[in-house]
């Protein structure tokens, strides 16, 4: 017999063995994972009919600003004064008009600012600046 050791066999076990509980929980988890797709596919849902009108896509007009200051309106070469006239006519027909301005990266800032000022004078309130993603 060694000195300083005590015999704890007479006392009841005070700790709970959680290993069987963890095993049961893992089995239940696997069962739920396997049954979840079957349950969602088995549900039949009757969706209501839509009564709202489909959204109208805005009319987009493309304006390209070249590095030399030239303008292309929907592929046609135009001058700055004719752009204003054309856009004012288009705005009367479709007030929700969106102008997409495609400026070349080599275009001078002063030229771009001047064209944007012209667009503001033409009444363009919805302007989108197009860029190339990197």
TrEMBL record:
Record key words, sorted: Cell membrane, Membrane, Protein transport, Transmembrane, Transmembrane helix, Transport
Keyword Endoplasmic reticulum: no
Any one of the GO CC terms: plasma membrane
InterPro entries: ExbD
Membrane topology: Single-pass membrane protein; Single-pass type II membrane protein
Superkingdom to which the source organism belongs: Bacteria
Single GO MF annotation: transmembrane transporter activity
Membrane-spanning intervals of the chain: 24-43
Single GO biological process annotation from the record: protein transport
Keyword Protein transport: yes
Intracellular or extracellular location(s): Cell membrane
UniProt record similarity statement: Belongs to the ExbD/TolR family.
Name of the protein in its database record: Biopolymer transporter ExbD
């Amino acid at each position: 017999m060694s000195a300083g050791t005590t015999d704890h066999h007479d006392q009841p076990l005070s700790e709970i063995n959680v290993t069987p509980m963890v095993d049961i929980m893992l089995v239940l988890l696997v069962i739920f994972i396997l049954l979840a797709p079957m349950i969602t596919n088995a549900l039949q849902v009757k969706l209501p009919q839509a009564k709202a009108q489909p959204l109208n896509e805005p009319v987009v007009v493309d304006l390209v600003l070249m590095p030399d200051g030239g303008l292309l309106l929907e592929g046609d070469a135009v001058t700055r004064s004719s752009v204003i006239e054309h856009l004012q006519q288009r705005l009367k027909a479709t007030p929700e008009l969106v102008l997409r301005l495609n400026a070349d990266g080599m275009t001078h800032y002063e030229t771009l600012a001047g064209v944007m000022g012209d667009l503001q004078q033409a009444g363009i309130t919805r302007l989108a600046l197009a860029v190339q993603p990197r």
